[in-house]
Design brief:
The protein is built from five helices and five strands, in the order βαβαβαβαβα. The mean pLDDT is 93. A five-stranded parallel beta sheet has the order 2-1-3-4-5, with helices on both faces. The chain is of the alpha/beta class. 39% of the residues lie in helices and 16% in strands. α1 packs parallel to α5. The chain has a single domain, classed as Rossmann fold (3-Layer(aba) Sandwich).
Length: 136
């Protein structure tokens, strides 16, 4: 199984450590093609010295190879939204993990999509259980 993990990069890197832990857990179920999303050394604005078209084409190639998309969507990200939309378009299974926050809500385009499995969680252990249930 090939897994495409999506998480905010240019939208904010506050959850980079969490992404890394989720990615490590996802490895129980297959190859995570986008491990770099959890790299704590990734610059706030993404990969230094790499052109946007290269990133788009590389990530799209990984995306097309993947069997499933798992996205952490707490930090809003245009790129993650794009990837989720493309996943739905390509009829891939999609799991979105979201930590509720006061004064913020998940986008209705994600929360209201019948083609996306949305799950709220509070702790990493909660997220791991949701992932386990999704893959079983």
């Amino acid at each position: 199984m090939k897994i495409y993990f999506a998480g905010s990069i240019r939208g904010g890197r506050e959850d980079a450590e969490l992404y890394l832990q989720i990615i490590e857990h996802l490895k129980k179920y297959g190859e995570v093609l986008t491990e770099h999303v959890g790299d704590k050394n990734l610059a706030l604005l993404g990969e230094n010295g790499v052109k946007d078209d290269y990133i788009h084409n590389r990530d799209l190639e990984w995306f097309l190879q993947s069997n499933v998309v798992v996205a952490e969507v707490t930090t809003p990200s245009l790129g993650v939204g794009y990837e989720i939309g493309r996943a739905v378009e390509n009829q891939k299974r999609v799991l979105c993990l979201y930590r509720p926050q006061d004064g913020k809500r998940l986008s209705a385009m994600i929360a209201g999509s019948p083609d996306v499995t949305n799950a709220e969680y509070q702790t990493l252990d909660d997220a791991k259980k949701i992932i386990d249930d999704f893959f079983e």
